[in-house]
Structures are given as C-alpha cells and as structure tokens.
C-alpha cells in the first residue's frame, strides 16, 4: 500500500516529488540569469505566471490581439465578452501546438497523449470507437531501411562486426577496416557511424529517405493485393470482404534513417461507421504472413537527382519484424512481449520525435546535411541555367528538409477508419473546457461520470463563440521567460509522473 509519500528511489527518479519542489534550470549564461532574475522580481510576475500556467508552460506561445463574444445559440443573447486587453499581460497567449519535444516539451506532451489515445482506441475501443474492434486481428510491424554501408551497432551485446563481410576484403579501398571487434554499449558515440564514411552511400541514403513515404504507400497497396489473393477474391471486391486499417509512426535510427512502426488491423466489410467484425478466414497469422510476403516485393524506381545521376531501385530493408498482438480475452502471461497499451505508448513516443531528438550531432550527420546542401545547390544551378522552376524537379525542395535529414513525410499517420481523429480528440478537449468554464460561471459542479456522453460529437452546443483575432507574434518576451516556462513544464511533468507512480502503488 502506498503511503502518499515517495520512497527515496522515487524521489531520485522524480525530482518534482512535491508541490514545494523548486525548478531545475540548466546552466545559464549571464544574460539569461539577468533576464530570469528581472522576471522573478518584476511587478507583473504574477500576471506572467498566470499566463504561463494557462498555456501549460508552452515554450513558444502564439500571441493574439482581438476580442470574442459567447452567444446563446437558442436565444441569441450575448452571454459574455472577452478582449485581449483583459488578459493578464494585455495580449492573449495560446499554445504553439508543436509536436516536437525539442521545440516545445509541453505541447509535445499533449500531442503524445492525444496520439496515445488515438492509437489505443483503435486497439481496445473507447473514445467513440466500439469495444468490438478489439476482437479483430492485429499485428505490430516494423519496416526498416536497407543498408547503405557498414555502420557500428550494439548487436545485442555481441561484438560489432567481428567477421569480414562476404565478398569484401578486411580493408576497404580507402584504407578503412571492414571489421570491428568492439562491443559497443548504448551510449557509445560510434553507434550509427559508418566504418568508412567514404564507402557509405550518402546519396543513396538521401534518395531512399526522400521517397520513403512513397514506399509506404506502395506497401499498403501491395498488402491489400496480396490479401485479396490469399482470400481468393478479386482486388476490386476486397472491401466487400475485409478492410485494412493502420496507425503508423516514423522513428529515426542512429544512422539517420527512419523505421516505420505500424499497428495494422483487419476489419470486416467496409461500412458507414467502420469497425465491422473480421470474417472467419481473416486472422492475425494470415495478416502477418501477407505482410512478410509483401514487403520484399515493394519497390520504386527513384528518378535521377540531376543529369548524370542514376535511377535507383528502392525497397525496404531485409530486417522485418511482424508480431501478432492479442487484445481481448488475453491470458496474463508474464512472458508476453507486447500488450496494446505498451504498443500505443511506444508509437506515441516516437510521434513526438524529430531528427534532432533521436540522433546526436556527429560527423556522419554533418556529412548527410552537407550532401543535401551540395545536391540542392546543383539543382538550383541547373534550374537557373535551364530556366525551369524548382517544382518541376522531384528533389527541388530537398534543401528545405535538411533539418529532417531529407525525410519529408508525416511522422504519425493513420488510415481513415483506424479510429477517431486528432481533430475530434482536440474538439472534445475544447468542449470539455467550455463546459467547465460554463459550470464555474454558473457556480455549479460539473458531473463528469458520463464523460463520453457529455462530450459526444452530436452533443447539442448551447453556446457559440465568435471571435476576431489578429496575430501579434510568437514566443515569450525574453529567452529567460522561455527557460522558466520549460523548467516549469518539466517540473509539472515530473510531478504528474510521481503522482501516477504513487497512485499505482496504492
């Protein structure tokens, strides 16, 4: 039983173990120290703190000027008005909504939570998704990138590359070794680094990364075609028998290439509301078999980047992991590797990552970015010489994705009928906040026992908010304010984790 107080271990794990815990600020420059001190002793500190709390200690809030009115939809009566001049700092601050943890930890946390509920609902039901969806076959698949050169890896605790690769000498043409007898740990700076950067195919790496979204699209088509063959139905009639739904996220590897992790589900025939029971012949084992057979056949001939550049045939890597996941009526097996909540949390975590979150700056990544710059400069020069617009070149926008190492796809996507949308989740949150505000205004307690019914999409809204707003800027007044906000967000996160751990212990 929990005592309400954390153990010494818990205190070390969660520094923000009490409401009185202070903020942990990083090493500050004299300029930042001066800005933070000025904020803490300023007359408007309380107003700033209130504003920061209202936006969840967002690192880069959007500033708006304007006004709004709340109107009763039944009578047309103006119930209340609000002006940005009435805000504590004289301007309305709203969350930036950035999904990347490196940009805004607070908004990223909200995005991860929304993604978790979106993914989980497609596995176990809830949030308007019927629970019967948990009876449908489900697999967890990881699709990898191919090799573009030998790189250092952990190899599950074994020596990195103790043997000479088949068909290669012990020393490459550039004088570098093609073997590595070291046993790397997860913190080794060599992880993901090529054994020889001159041998590594940086151009092929970038072309594959650029067209990875197209490979995923072709993968979904190939799976449906293969499924139709296995079930013995024409491809055009497959939706009348079974439909394929998925939720997918992209994760950066240390070598700067992405993996695709996906939950793939088989539903019954296509219906208006979706989530129909899968037919008897459609099983998780069949789906796993179809995926394993389909992946090797997914290819795409990438066009040349410029004159003299070859056409490259792209495909996924040889490493493929496909595991069926049991959801409903499962046994409590301690040796079971994956459970729905675990997978949903796993995918939600990677949905908030970017290249800078998942990979440390190193010579390999710098060379990748330098190669992008080199290719972009050549494409720009060719476009100026030929007088053709950049949009006519399939790689014309490569330079704009330099910070993402050439990956231009969405980090989190789903099929239309996998579950509900992020928009609906956010709409429910906004509706709940309005209901809470209305209850507070009327001096009554909001009954949230039937929250799903309360937030149903077809619930009749009693009020309408009409606003007139203009953009006034982004971010806090100083970098010191931003550091304070991020430190407060980190403390709130640690405190929430401690509370959750304490609750589990009871």
Radius of gyration, whole Å = 27 Å
Query: What is the helix fraction of residues, given as a range?
Result: 25-40%
Distance between the termini: 5 Å
What is the structural class? alpha+beta
Q: Find the count of extended strands (DSSP E, 2+ residues).
A: 11
Give the mean pLDDT. Answer: 85
> What's the story with the biggest beta sheet?
5 strands, antiparallel
Number of helices: 12
Q: List SSEs in N-to-C order.
A: HHHEEEHEHEEHEEEHHHEHHEH
Note the beta-strand portion. 5-15%
Across the major sheet, the strand order is 9-4-6-5-10
Unreliable parts: 1-12, 329-335
Shape verdict: globular
Descriptive notes:
This protein is α+β, with helices and mostly antiparallel strands and 506 residues long. 36% of the residues lie in helices and 15% in strands. The chain is built from twelve helices and eleven strands. It has helices at residues 8-13, 30-40, 45-54, 105-124, 202-231, 284-294, 340-351, 355-358, 363-386, 422-442, 451-454, 479-505, and strands at 62-72, 78-83, 92-94, 138-143, 243-252, 258-267, 299-302, 312-315, 320-324, 412-414, 463-474. The strands form three sheets. Strands 9-4-6-5-10 form a five-stranded antiparallel beta sheet, with helices on both faces. Strands 1, 2, 3 and 11 form a four-stranded antiparallel beta sheet that branches. Strands 7-8 form a two-stranded antiparallel ribbon. The longest helix has 30 residues, at 202-231.
Name its key features.
506 residues, alpha+beta, five-stranded antiparallel beta sheet, 36% helix, disordered N terminus
Sum this structure up briefly.
The chain is α+β, with helices and mostly antiparallel strands. It is 36% helix and 15% strand.
């Amino acid at each position: 039983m929990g005592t309400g107080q954390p153990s010494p271990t818990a205190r070390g794990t969660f520094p923000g173990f009490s409401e009185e815990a202070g903020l942990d600020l990083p090493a500050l420059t004299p300029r930042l120290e001066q800005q933070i001190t000025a904020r803490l002793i300023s007359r408007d500190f309380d107003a700033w703190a209130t504003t920061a709390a209202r936006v969840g200690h967002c690192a880069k809030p959007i500033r708006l000027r304007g006004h709004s009115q709340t109107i009763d939809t039944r009578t047309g009566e103006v119930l209340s008005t609000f002006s940005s001049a009435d805000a504590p700092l004289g301007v309305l601050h709203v969350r930036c909504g950035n999904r990347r943890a490196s940009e805004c930890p607070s908004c990223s946390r909200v995005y991860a939570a929304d993604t978790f509920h979106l993914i989980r609902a497609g596995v176990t039901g809830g949030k308007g998704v019927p629970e019967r969806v948990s009876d449908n076959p489900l697999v967890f698949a990881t699709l990898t990138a191919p090799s573009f050169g030998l790189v250092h890896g952990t190899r599950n605790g074994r020596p990195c590359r103790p043997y000479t690769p088949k068909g290669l000498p012990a020393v490459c043409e550039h004088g570098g070794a093609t073997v590595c007898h070291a046993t790397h740990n997860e913190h080794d700076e060599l992880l993901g680094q090529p054994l020889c950067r001159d041998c590594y195919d940086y151009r092929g790496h970038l072309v594959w990364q650029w067209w990875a979204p197209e490979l995923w699209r072709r993968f979904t088509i190939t799976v449906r075609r293969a499924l139709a063959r296995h079930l013995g139905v024409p491809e055009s009639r497959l939706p009348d028998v079974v439909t394929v739904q998925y939720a997918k996220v992209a994760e950066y590897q240390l070598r700067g290439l992405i993996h695709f992790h996906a939950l793939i589900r088989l539903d019954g025939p296509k219906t208006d509301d979706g989530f129909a029971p899968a037919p008897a012949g459609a099983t998780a084992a069949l789906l796993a078999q179809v995926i394993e057979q389909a992946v090797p056949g997914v290819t795409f001939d990438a066009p040349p980047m410029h004159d003299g550049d070859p056409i490259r045939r792209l495909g996924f890597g040889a490493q493929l992991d496909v595991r069926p996941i049991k959801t409903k009526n499962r046994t409590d097996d301690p040796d079971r590797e994956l459970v729905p909540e675990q997978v949903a949390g796993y995918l939600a975590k990677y949905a908030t990552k970017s290249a800078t979150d998942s990979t440390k700056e190193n010579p390999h990544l710098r060379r990748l970015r330098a190669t992008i710059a080199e290719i972009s400069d050549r494409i720009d020069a060719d476009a100026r010489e030929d007088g053709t617009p950049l949009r006519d070149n399939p790689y014309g926008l490569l330079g704009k994705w330099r910070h993402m190492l050439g990956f231009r796809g969405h980090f989190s996507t789903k099929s239309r009928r996998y579950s509900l949308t992020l928009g609906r989740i956010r709409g429910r949150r906004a509706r709940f906040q309005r209901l809470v505000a209305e209850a507070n205004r009327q001096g009554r307690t909001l009954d949230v026992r039937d929250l799903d019914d309360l937030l149903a999409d077809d619930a009749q809204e009693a009020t309408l908010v009409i606003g007139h707003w203009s953009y006034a800027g982004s971010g806090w007044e100083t970098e010191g304010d931003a550091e304070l906000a991020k430190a407060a967000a980190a403390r709130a996160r640690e405190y929430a984790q401690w509370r959750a751990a304490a609750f589990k212990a009871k």
